[in-house]
């Protein structure tokens, strides 16, 4: 799938718990997001996002002026996806503690157990989750 901020917005509240690969090259991010993965396959709790043609990986902390470019450091930074926007260079993923800037040519999704996923399946599961959530909590507001 071509780069899009929408593909990150469906991963809302997902925690980036592992980063592997190379930049430039293919970067793989393990996203722990049980509420969404369980809808895709009962008992699943994470998926991998493989970013092909990755040319930019930089984290900008809200608390530090020093950008983080080291991939091994990203794994230990408590990166939880909140939202994303498109930028001139690619995508800016807003996390609870900063922004993860990414530029890549294509994204592939693989569910726990090496099950390839189409983005449409992830998007539909996300829409179902939030529709169900709204129905459950609509009267609480």
Description:
By secondary structure, the chain is of the alpha+beta class. It has one domain. Helices cover 24% and strands 41% of the residues. The chain has helices at 6-9, 34-40, 71-74, 119-137, and strands at residues 15-21, 25-32, 46-54, 56-61, 79-86, 91-95, 98-103, 106-111, 115-117. A nine-stranded antiparallel beta sheet has the order 4-7-6-5-1-2-3-8-9. α2 packs across α4. The N and C termini lie far apart (37 Å).
Low-confidence stretches: none
State the order of secondary-structure elements, H for helix, E for strand: HEEHEEHEEEEEH
For the report, how would you describe the main beta sheet?
Answer: 9 strands, antiparallel
- Helices and strands: which structural class? alpha+beta
Q: How is this fold's topology laid out?
A:
Blueprint lengths: L5 H4 L5 E7 L3 E8 L1 H7 L5 E9 L1 E6 L9 H4 L4 E8 L4 E5 L2 E6 L2 E6 L3 E3 L1 H19 L4
Helix pairs in contact: 2-4
In short:
The protein contains 4 helices and 9 strands, in the order αββαββαβββββα.
Q: Keyphrases for this structure?
A:
141 residues, 9-stranded antiparallel sheet, 24% helix, globular
């Amino acid at each position: 799938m071509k780069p899009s901020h929408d593909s990150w917005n469906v991963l809302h509240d997902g925690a980036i718990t592992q980063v592997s690969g190379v930049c430039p090259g293919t970067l793989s991010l393990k996203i722990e997001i049980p509420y969404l993965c369980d809808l895709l396959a009962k008992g699943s709790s994470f998926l991998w996002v493989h970013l092909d043609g990755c040319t930019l990986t930089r984290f900008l902390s809200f608390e530090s002026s020093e950008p983080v470019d080291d991939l091994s450091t990203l794994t230990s930074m408590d990166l939880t996806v909140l939202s994303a926007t498109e930028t001139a260079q690619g995508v800016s993923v807003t996390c609870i503690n900063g922004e993860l800037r990414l530029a890549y040519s294509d994204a592939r999704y693989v569910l726990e157990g090496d099950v390839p996923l189409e983005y449409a399946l992830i998007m539909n599961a996300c829409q179902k989750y939030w529709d169900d959530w709204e129905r459950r909590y609509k009267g609480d507001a």
